[in-house]
Specification:
Strand order of the largest sheet: 1-2-3-4
InterPro entries: Flagellar_biosynth_FliO
Largest sheet: 4 strands, antiparallel
Subcellular location: Cell membrane
Keywords: Cell membrane, Cell projection, Cilium, Flagellum, Membrane, Transmembrane, Transmembrane helix
Strand content: 5-15%
Structural class: alpha+beta
Number of helices: 7
Number of strands: 4
Main location: membrane
Order of helices and strands: HHHHEEEEHHH
Radius of gyration: 36 Å
Pfam family, one: FliO
Length: about 230
């Protein structure tokens, strides 16, 4: 599977290279000097005209060698970006199918789970033709066992649909937007002054201490009332 992914990446690089094309070589500004030094000294005006002509031709060549970005270049860049996104999508989908086929061939397959708090979670595991719902904490306990073929098939179909939805272009775009927003919020929190953070921490500690003192006084009053 890794070799096929590597081949796909190599093919992507070749196609991008062919799409952008070879870089246009710059025109060399090399011209031979007509006449010798003596002629240039005897006829300075003619020598000046020759040098001016060479500078103008060099400027024209530099302008032609460095053209501005055209609308066609922008269209090609957009098409290249779309092509890369589509190719990446199909490569990820192919890898997902291969990994799914590999997992389905195993006797035990983890369908995921959900945390319950306190280092406890609920896990769904497929063992052979059965679905096991396990409670994981200090030890592992069997909560429920599903051996009905129809229910097992529904679990497998839902798991496969969830994997396919993770590779949808809309879901990928949503993840990118969330990542950008999280990065922006992280940058804002980092830009918060240290003094403000220190004050908030001190106020939180004071509130916790006041709450603890109230609870302690209340417990002492309850003990006195019991006595």
């Amino acid at each position: 599977m890794q070799s096929q992914v590597t081949k796909g990446l190599v093919l992507l690089g070749i196609l991008l290279y062919l799409l952008y094309g070879f870089p246009a070589p710059g025109n060399a500004l090399a011209a031979s000097f007509n006449g010798n030094v003596k002629e240039c000294i005897d006829h300075p005006k003619q020598c000046q005209k020759q040098s001016d002509g060479k500078s103008e031709s060099g400027a024209k060549q530099s302008e032609t060698a460095n053209p501005a970005v055209t609308f066609g270049d922008i269209v090609r860049m957009i098409l290249a970006l779309i092509f890369v996104i589509c190719l990446l999508y199909f490569v990820l989908k192919f890898v997902n199918k291969r990994s799914r086929a590999y997992q389905s061939s195993k006797m035990i397959q983890n369908f995921g789970g959900t945390p319950l708090g306190g280092n406890k979670s609920l896990q769904i595991v497929k063992a052979g033709d059965r679905i096991l719902i396990l409670g994981v904490g200090d030890d592992v306990q069997l909560v429920k066992e599903i051996d009905d073929e129809e229910e097992v098939r529904q679990f497998v179909d839902q798991y496969n649909k969830k994997l396919e939805q993770q590779l949808e272009p809309r879901d990928i775009a949503t993840r990118l937007i969330k990542a950008v927003k999280n990065r922006e919020t992280g940058a804002k929190t980092e830009a918060t002054p240290f003094g403000h953070l220190l004050k908030s921490q001190i106020s939180a500690i004071r509130e916790e201490r006041a709450q603890a003192m109230k609870e302690l006084e209340q417990r002492e009053k309850e003990k006195q009332n019991d006595e």
